[in-house]
Amino acid sequence: MRRIFSITLFSILSIYIAPLVIAESTIKNHNQHNAKKKSHSHKPTLAIGVAYDQNGTLWLAEVKNKKLLVSYSRNKGESFSTPKAVTTHTENIYADGENRPKIAITQDGTILLTWSLKQHKKYSGDIRFSRSTDSGQTFSLPITINDDGQITGHRFDSLTTNGKGKVIISWLDARDRDAARNRNEKFTGTSIYTAESNDNGKNFNINKKFHEHVCECCRIPSVWTKEGPIIFWRNIFGKNTRDFAISNLEKGEIRRVTNDEWQVDGCPHHGGDIALGLDNRIHIAWFTLGKTRQGLFYKHIQGNKESSPVPIGDPTAQPNHPSIAASDKNVLVAWREFDGENVTANIMYSTDEGITWSNQQRIADTKGPSDYPVPLINSEQQMQIFWNTKNEGLKIIPVDNNINFEASILNWYTYLKNELANLL
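Above: the chain's sequence. Below: its structure in token form.
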């Protein structure tokens, strides 16, 4: 009982002290980030893409020496094949922070890849695509997906497929903003554009504008549900309220799913993540410094119902950049923190569709630059964290999904209390 009380007290204190601590930490990080940008012209390309195919093979996409490489593992990451180059020539590829190469495998084994290519103009780029139809032995000549021919912002690509031939690539696109400025008109944020294929990426339709006035530097992850492709992004509501929304890319109805009331004139470079679980349940994780709440949070969405936000991380350790994976009833969330000396990879997980959660755990640390920890769950429901660091290289960390009983009971009680409060 004493331990349950201490956990509860810590949770309450975390909620109240988070606004001050996280705000101060964010400003500090922003200043440090700007200082590093001045002193280092080239960032290490540590951001990776990982995915399992239906046969249990693990696929890895990474950038080394300005080339996109793909390798595979048949033993869950203990060893990998010799990497194959996707790009025939060197490309200046975005592979840090909110940008990473994306990889997906369809039901017939076609390997799909997208990435963002840096152009010479600041904040400009192109969305690139390639695929393999022979199990990664060869890759098609990379093509540029954005079709406007402009040197402007085409970045933060997102890739999703139904596995049966349909593929949708989404990205943040600045062509509408540029056009408005040429007319001496104000344009807040940027736009989301898409390109669709009905033959596993052999051909793509012309670009379509999906939505205007979205945050210009936050990733836009997407998943394919029973109702079709769903995208999750930081939208600009009203004048400059930057909260999250979801929408079906084929139907276009926008639904606001966070009411944090974060009013900020500029992009926080801090996107959220989305995953699809059992019974078409959508799981999301995000960061905010809004009036309503501050910090990292998780919630799930099923139909018209939404769970109450669950705080993530230690607010005194600058928790940031959450990622989420889901399969069957299992949900795995990963994020980074900073303890004053080390950058740490942290997790929490659920085995009952996000209703109750394990204790939050620190699973690895590093003193140098690192990617954000990437969670993944294979078809055998084994959970793993993939964390690429400059000093130690790629770490693949298995997660033991035996939830602490005491923490589970407390989380279940909190869940029921919150759900009851929503009904009253």
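Confidence is low (pLDDT under 50) at residues 1-41, 404-408.
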